[in-house]
Amino acid sequence: MPKAQVHKFNIRFLPDDITVPVNEGTSILEAALAAGVNINTRCGGMGTCGSCRVWLKEGKASSKHTAGIDEADFKRGLRLACQTRAAGDITVEVPFTRGSSTEAGSSASCGRQETSILAEGWVFKPMAEKILLDLKPPTLEDNQADIGRLRRSLKQYGIEKLAIGYDSLKRLPDVLRAGNWKATATVLAEEPSPLLVLLEPGDTTGKHYGIALDIGTTAVRAQLLDLANGTTLAESTAYNRQSDYGEDVISRIAYSRRMLGMEKLQQAVSETLNYLIEEMLGRTNVEKTDISHVVIAANTVMIQLLLGINPEPLRLSPYVPAVDTLPQVKTRALGIDLPEHVYAYIIPPVASYVGGDIVSGITGSGIYQRTNVSLYIDIGTNGEIVAGNRDWLVTAACSAGPTFEGGGIKFGMLAASGAIEGFELDAPGGEPQIKIIGDGAPAGICGSGIINTVATLLRIGVLGPNGRFVPESGCPRIRQGPDGMEYVLVEAALAQHDHDIVITEMDIDNFIRSKAAIFAGCQTLIDSVGISLEDIDDVIIAGTFGSRIDIENSITVGLLPDLAREKFYFIGNGSLIGARLTCLSRDLYRDGLKVSEMMTNIELSENNVFTSNYIASLFLPHTDSRKFPSVEVKR
Q1: 2-21 pLDDT, tens digit each
Q2: How far apart are CA 469 and CA 457, in angstroms?
Q3: Among 101, 149, 487, 597, which is most buried by a count of CB atoms within 10 Å?
Q4: Per-residue DSSP letter, 3
Q5: Mind listing the pLDDT tens digit for each residue in 121-154?
Q6: pLDDT confidence of 111, banded at 50, 70, 90?
């Protein structure tokens, strides 16, 4: 028999103080994955992005690669987790926390207003319905089969051509008699026939819950819904654990082609979903057995990885998704730890990079119901844009990268406790006023903080339109750092960790590329239908990040078009809003199918106009100042 594997060393992770036993030669990144410690990696552990930095505090380790780490920091113990392997017991510190499992901070928007621009005219009738039945017991004169008796009773509620799941069929005689012919039927709206997914003795209509999920590339968000009255009982957020294998969709597609790569990615997202569900149920004392239905909104890559479908064709011309309509699937088949009767409805995608999340957002926002022309922008790792009204809808997606959610930024993090989100500075030589989410010390900077910082530094002349710091400005916080010129946001003595929090020119380069992709996508989409940005009646900003941004500063840096400020509205996480409303209303379920069919996709991946618009946008705010007439930049 082969010998059992023996662990020889321990790796201890700070500040979480988690220790994991490992074999000699195990990388720090592999150990972190095993221990559930989040370490930022954009390349999936290939050693090319330089983002998985950790501090080697104690012990012996071998490191063969130091991409982006200068000699001085290497001597101090800075390492790449993916390229550093245990050669003894070691202690490492993850330099800063990119976020927490539940997002913190106020829900107030930094922009002009929040609004409830949402779909109207829908009727509250959940996709999964619980119906209390009072059946007549059989007699010698009326000895119809149990299943016929059940169908006859459900016809009184307008349910015809009922399909019955095998599990319900097996339990049918016992359940009816256990409840003395009173039973609760859970019926799922399904095409072509409604489906009986659960039959329970007695009256359980008061225990009827649903879950809405938004599976983002970086973060996953969930809501627990009371399907008896339509209220939201709990909400929770966690990092998508797939981030451990790559920060963007392209790196995850590449990882899925490795040995067991697909299995690991599918397991990572199902573990994230299970964590969120357990967390919400624990806070509300709702039992798993009382969950009736799940609705999932996600981008196309996340959908196919959840389903275990090869996503490789999504990144290759002509960029074709495997599916554009999806049957409801049992949650257990997806690795989601819910009872056998629970099905998930996955909102259908439109194209490779226009997923069910954008269909969900358009459905929830009600754009498809109105006559005025709206521009819908979902700002995230994959920036998705829609223009149109009730007569037409065009859409496009552009890879903005993870910058807006803290990725690709030296001290970037989600909008969680400790994140810098506000920044003000009156003069180059002055002291900055920063706003932190929560009550603790600063830990890093989130997407809205990056926008506010860049806009302010640009406005007062500390930063030039080319994204380079201006030493002649006389700002004492500009200095040379290991990654080039940088601006000190917070000194180490005031931070959560033992080093200064800075924003670097490399960070600003990454941000400029991200904002350029969003603006160029908007410009290209609008041009494609023969109208101008001035013809837009409403600009709806979606995404959890989008609800926190400052409109004025976002226009200053060239992220959003320079339009009348009263045209801008926020809806927060449009994808999650649409998933929730779809769970609550069959009307919106049907409308979502209509929206997905209405959308015409404009592919930007090989679009020369988009490329030209993108290159022109690689400036603050833009190479063509006429596009931003209200923006004054000190040059």
Answers
A1: 444 555 888 888 877 788 78
A2: 9
A3: 487
A4: P
A5: 889 999 999 999 999 999 998 899 999 999 999 9
A6: very low
DSSP 406-471: TTTSTTB--S-TTEEEEEE-SSTTS--EEEESSSS---EE-HHHHHHHHHHHHHTTSB-TTS-B-G
Q: What are phi and psi of 522, to 5 degrees?
A: -60, -50
Lowest-confidence segment of 100-109, 249-258, 457-466, 508-517 by average pLDDT: 100-109
Question: Residue 349 corresponds to which amino acid?
Answer: P
| Terminal C-alpha separation, the chain | 74
CA distance 318 to 217: 22
**Residue keyed to tokens 């600063």:** 442
Q: Which amino acid is it at 318?
A: P
Phi then psi dihedrals of residue 488, to 5 deg: -80, 115
Under a CB-based contact definition with an 8 Å cutoff, are residues 376 and 542 in contact?
yes
Residue 97 has pLDDT above 90, yes or no: no
CA dihedral for 195, 198, 203, 205, sign (positive or negative): negative
Q: What is the spatial distance between Cα 134 and Cα 150, in angstroms, rounded to a whole number?
A: 10
Confidence (pTM): 0.79
Q: What backbone torsions phi and psi does residue 548 show, to the nearest 5 degrees?
A: -105, -5
130 in helix, strand or coil? strand
User: 567 pairs with which residues across the strands?
Assistant: none
Q: How far apart are CA 20 and CA 4, in angstroms?
A: 18
